[in-house]
Every structure is written in structure tokens, then in C-alpha cells.
């Protein structure tokens, strides 16, 4: 792991890896716990300011290692307080995060891949294709960077993997980042304050059954028939609605927790009363909660947001049958806050 002469980025290393590194450079094992605590609990990224460590050890760390966060290439603030961050990675690729302030909580929406190959027709990130998975330090770097800038306190905000990319196609790095967030000796975030949103990578959902702890799961549903979902979300041709819903039924969630189903509402496409009734049929035998998301328009894509009346009617069909329904407020329209818009435009500009 440690290669003399190369400044390795220590962000993203877990306790065992930091212990291995500390021992490999001849330091005593207890230094590893101190270093881990400084990085993840105190969020101290300057080795020379890590006051738990001896001066000599601090200087050696500064000479031989680094803690590097993605660079903020651009930030855009909306009138409603939403802030969108465009991050430049070390290889000059771009990803996005969105900070969403609320009265009762703050939420940070982060990316897991540069681009995406799921191919959802209504999503701007899909226009980029998949360039690569994010590394653990690039995932955590989004959280560290925004938390530092916004002065967010540990435990005072939620993290959702709902930015660019399909998180479960980057399972290893996403889950390692999650474990570091949820580690009581590290970032110490409640696992209930972290949500992974997936388009439905069924094998990865089943793999998650074996994790000691796991985050909230949100399923990006968006259609109630295989025919429509095949068209809107080509991944459905690999794992169809029946397989996806069965995997949800098998998911070992705690008794009082529920799986969230996200439903992006597209005018004249998936917003009819029949679509709502079809959703009810899909949910038989489940205790779901539904997040209705009015479409955030993307330039160049042919979809529109339904009227408020149509959205309310769809919601009422579900609520009248006892389904817990949440309505996501439309946020950041004036700053292109839908996933992938800024990164796509930046990439197109760079390639021009």
C-alpha cells in the first residue's frame, strides 16, 4: 500500500489500513488510532494541526503523505438556499454534489460515479455515459468539503447517494465510504442518516443482506409496468419489476424501517390514476413509503413536470390506500440542480 517517494492520500483508509501504514513506517500501533481519530472524528486534514500526535510524527506525515479533497470548480446558489457544487477531480473529470437546507434537517446529495451507464431516458447524467467509478476518498471528499464550507456538525445532516452514477455499480467503494461514515470511532454518523438510491441492481441488493450494518435503501422506481420501465430505465430489461420487488421483500430491514420507493413524475408518461393503481398492486405484501418527485427539467430532454393538480391526484390515490407518501419539493430550478447538468455542460465545454 505505502510506496516511498509517492505521497499517498490517507483519506479513505479504514482503521486496519491506517494501522498497516503506521506500522510499515516504523511507528507504534497506538499512533494509528490517534491518526484515524484526527481524520475522521475531528475532520482535521492538516497533519501539522493534528495535536493528538507528536510533532515529529506530524512532520513525517506532512512530508510523506497527504489528505486531498476534490477541488470546488464552481458553486451555484439558488434562491431557495440550495447550493450545487461542481467538483474537479485530480484527473480533470467532474462530479456534482447538492446541499439542500431544510428547517428540520440538512441533506447533502453526493455522487458515486463520473457519469452513469444505466441509461435512464430522463436523466442528464445518462447523456455522459460512464467514465469511471469514484474512489473512496472522492466520495468522502464531497462530504468533507461541503461540511467544512457549510460548518455542518457531525450528526446534524443526512447524506444521500442520489447524485451522479449508480451507487450499487460501485458497491465496494460506496460501501467502504458508508462504513467510514457510520463507524462510531470515525465519522460517527447514524446509519439511518445515510441513504443509497439505486435503479435496481438486484444482485448488489442481495449482497447487501450480508452486511453487518447497511444504510437506508431507496429504489428509483419511476414506472409501474415492465414495458414503460424497459423504455425509461433500460436496466429493467436485465432485472425486471418482479425481480426487483421480490428482492425488496427479502431485504432484511429493521421492523420499524421501510424501503423508500422514489418516483420521478413525468407529465403524460407515468402520472395517470392507472399508474397509481398499478403501483398499489406492485406493493402488495410490502410496507413501502413513496417519495413523489416532480420532474426537474433537463435541457434537450423531452419530458415535462406534471401540474400540481395531477401530482396531488396521484398522491391521493396512494394515500387513500394507506401508503405513506412524501412529496419532494422542487429545489434549485434556477441553478440546474438536476443531477448531471453542470458536469455534462462542463465536460461538453472541455471537449469542444
Kindly describe this structure.
The chain is α/β, with parallel strands linked by helices and 352 residues long. The protein folds into 2 domains: 8-66, Orthogonal Bundle (DNA polymerase, domain 1), CATH 1.10.150.530; 71-351, Aldolase class I (TIM Barrel, Alpha-Beta Barrel). Helices cover 33% and strands 19% of the residues. The chain has 11 helices and 14 strands. The chain has helices spanning 15-24, 30-41, 55-64, 136-150, 171-182, 202-208, 226-232, 241-250, 273-282, 308-319, 341-351, and strands spanning 8-9, 65-66, 71-77, 83-88, 94-101, 106-109, 113-115, 130-133, 157-161, 194-198, 216-220, 260-265, 289-294, 324-327. The strands form 3 sheets. Strands 3-4-5-6-9-10-11-12-13-14 form a 10-stranded mixed β-sheet, with helices on both faces. A two-stranded parallel ribbon has the order 1-2. Strands 7-8 form a two-stranded antiparallel ribbon. A hairpin with a 5-residue loop joins strand 3 and strand 4 (83-88). Helix 4 crosses helix 5. The longest helix has 15 residues, at 136-150. It is elongated, with a radius of gyration of 21 Å. It starts with 7 loop residues before the first strand and ends with a helix.
Amino acid at each position: 500500500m505505502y510506496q516511498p517517494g509517492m505521497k499517498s492520500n490517507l483519506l479513505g483508509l479504514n482503521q486496519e489500513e491506517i494501522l498497516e501504514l503506521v506500522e510499515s513506517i516504523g511507528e507504534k500501533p497506538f499512533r494509528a488510532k490517534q491518526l484515524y481519530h484526527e481524520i475522521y472524528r475531528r475532520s482535521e486534514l492538516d497533519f501539522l494541526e493534528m495535536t493528538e500526535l507528536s510533532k515529529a510524527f506530524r512532520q513525517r506525515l506532512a512530508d510523506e503523505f497527504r489528505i486531498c479533497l476534490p477541488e470546488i470548480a464552481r458553486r451555484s446558489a439558488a434562491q431557495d438556499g440550495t447550493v450545487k457544487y461542481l467538483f474537479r477531480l485530480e484527473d480533470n473529470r467532474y462530479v456534482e454534489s447538492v446541499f439542500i437546507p431544510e428547517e428540520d434537517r440538512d441533506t447533502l446529495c453526493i455522487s458515486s460515479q463520473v457519469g452513469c451507464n444505466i441509461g435512464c431516458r430522463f436523466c442528464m447524467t445518462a447523456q455522459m455515459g460512464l467514465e469511471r467509478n469514484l474512489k473512496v476518498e472522492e466520495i468522502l471528499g464531497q462530504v468533507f468539503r461541503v461540511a467544512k464550507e457549510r460548518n455542518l456538525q457531525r450528526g446534524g445532516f443526512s447524506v444521500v447517494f442520489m447524485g451522479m452514477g449508480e451507487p450499487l455499480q460501485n458497491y465496494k467503494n460506496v460501501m467502504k465510504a458508508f462504513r467510514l461514515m457510520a463507524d462510531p470511532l470515525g465519522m460517527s454518523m447514524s446509519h439511518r442518516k445515510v441513504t443509497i438510491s439505486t435503479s435496481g441492481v438486484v444482485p448488489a441488493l442481495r449482497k447487501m443482506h450480508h452486511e453487518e450494518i447497511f444504510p437506508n435503501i431507496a429504489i428509483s422506481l419511476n414506472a409501474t409496468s415492465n414495458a414503460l420501465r424497459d423504455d425509461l430505465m433500460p436496466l429493467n430489461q436485465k432485472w425486471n419489476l418482479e425481480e426487483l420487488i421480490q428482492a425488496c421483500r427479502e431485504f432484511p430491514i429493521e421492523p420499524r424501517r421501510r424501503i423508500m420507493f422514489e418516483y420521478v413524475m413525468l407529465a403524460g408518461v407515468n402520472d395517470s390514476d392507472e399508474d397509481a393503481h398499478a403501483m398499489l398492486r406492485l406493493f402488495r405484501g410490502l410496507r413501502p413509503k413513496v417519495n413523489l418527485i416532480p420532474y426537474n427539467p433537463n435541457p434537450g430532454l423531452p419530458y415535462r413536470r406534471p401540474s400540481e393538480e395531477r401530482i396531488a391526484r396521484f398522491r391521493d390515490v396512494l394515500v387513500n390506500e394507506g401508503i405513506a407518501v412524501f412529496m419532494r419539493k422542487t429545489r434549485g430550478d434556477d441553478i440546474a440542480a438536476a443531477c448531471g447538468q453542470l458536469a455534462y455542460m462542463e465536460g461538453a465545454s472541455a471537449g469542444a
